[in-house]
Write a structure and sequence with these properties.
single chain, 370 residues, alpha+beta, SH3 type barrels, Alpha-Beta Plaits, six-stranded mixed β-sheet, four-stranded antiparallel β-sheet, elongated
């Protein structure tokens, strides 16, 4: 199966498939809502439960089957240990707790779990510029509010002391929810896509399968009908998406974890992986050991103050860029072809700093395609 990277090579691997109505966080909130209706001798019909859950979650519609499933889970699921005494009263034509003193608040979430939820909300804040993810930050906070009954003191810390890497708003994230819908609905789409080195956008009919994030940029992986191969498209280069309901979606049997297993980044070549040996300084080795570049990274030995590592992968531009970032602390030993390729890049880079720097600037400006 051939694969081609479309557009410029810029590529935290993540498979992004979230369905709002199936969120485990939303289910927990529904349990709390149902509990609030039935405690202290309360009663509620399925219709009333649905209405209350829709109001709290701001999600419509919630199906009768969903609430019936929630009631079953609250009664029977051993993982929750609620063992809720929920019964249907024919007298009231509504559900009740057979034990009027029962409440799932007898199984409170402890401080550590509350702090974990708050941390989750803080993590989601880093994605607040992505419209589709904004709802989940709010959902986590609703859970915290639902389980926090005022037992926590006013001195409990928030998570403002946790800082994540921030990046400028990247174009294309506005297409995330739409692409998620097309993938989950298994629909063929046509995208208008402008490569960075093109003046005009092209039309691509694709069967979308995967959304992948790498270094704060999002990509969609899809089967391209005309070229009969998988291609990877950067969302920031998409200018429009049209669903093609009359086209039959191809259900491809593809393990996307294995699809990228021999590469680093978003680039993927249809080549066999090779053993790449590098030598690096002892100081740099500590970075590589504590944060490996790739799962198929292996420490071999230390020799004369240098540490030898082996990588079994296909060298991609992203892998090369990582090595060049440590240029004065690292050296490729094998294979000879890749060693020569890196040496050529270093020579080209050195040439930019030789002679009159002004002429280099003019040259770059005059030749820029972007």
């Amino acid at each position: 199966m051939k694969t081609e990277k479309t557009g410029e090579t810029i590529t935290h691997s993540a498979i992004f498939r979230i369905l709002k109505k199936k969120s485990p966080m939303n289910a927990y909130i529904r349990y709390r809502v149902i509990n609030s209706l039935l405690t202290n001798g309360g009663r509620a019909s399925l219709k009333q439960m649905i209405k209350a859950c829709e109001d709290v979650l701001d999600i419509k519609p919630i199906s009768k089957r969903t609430i019936e499933g929630d009631l079953h889970v609250m009664r029977k699921d051993p993982r929750l240990e609620f063992d809720a005494p929920i019964e249907y009263s024919h007298t009231y034509r509504a559900y009740i707790y057979s034990d009027p003193d029962y409440s799932i608040d007898r199984f409170p979430v402890n401080m550590e779990e509350v702090q974990t939820l708050r941390f989750a909300a803080t993590i989601l804040k880093q994605f607040q510029h992505i419209e589709y993810l904004e709802q989940f930050e709010g959902t986590v906070q609703k859970i915290v509010d639902a389980i926090d009954k005022g037992d926590l003191s006013d001195d409990d810390p928030d998570m403002s002391f946790v800082h994540f890497e921030k990046s400028p708003l990247i174009r294309g994230t506005e297409y995330l929810q739409e692409l998620i819908d097309h993938i989950t609905d298994k629909k063929v789409i046509r995208i208008q896509y402008r490569k960075f080195d093109s003046e005009q956008a092209g039309q691509y009919v694709i069967h979308p399968y995967l959304l992948k994030e790498y270094r704060n940029r999002w990509y969609v992986v899809g089967y391209h009908e005309d070229d009969r191969m998988f291609k990877i498209f950067g969302l920031e280069r998409i200018e429009g998406i049209t669903r093609l309901p009359l086209k039959t979606y191809l259900t491809q049997i593809v393990d996307f974890e294995r699809f990228f297993e021999n590469s680093i980044g978003i680039t993927r070549y249809d080549e066999e992986p090779v053993d790449i040996l590098i030598a690096c300084t002892s100081r740099l080795s500590k970075y590589l050991i504590t944060k490996p570049l790739h799962p198929k990274q292996e420490f071999i030995k230390e020799e004369k103050g240098w540490c030898i590592f082996k990588f079994h992968l296909v060298p991609t531009p992203e892998f090369t860029a990582a090595l060049l970032g440590w240029a004065d602390q690292i050296k490729v030993m094998k294979p000879a072809k890749y060693k020569k390729e890196l040496a050529s890049k270093i020579e080209s880079m050195m040439a930019l700093y030789k002679g009159n720097s002004e002429s280099v600037i003019h040259f770059k400006s005059d030749s820029s395609a972007a």
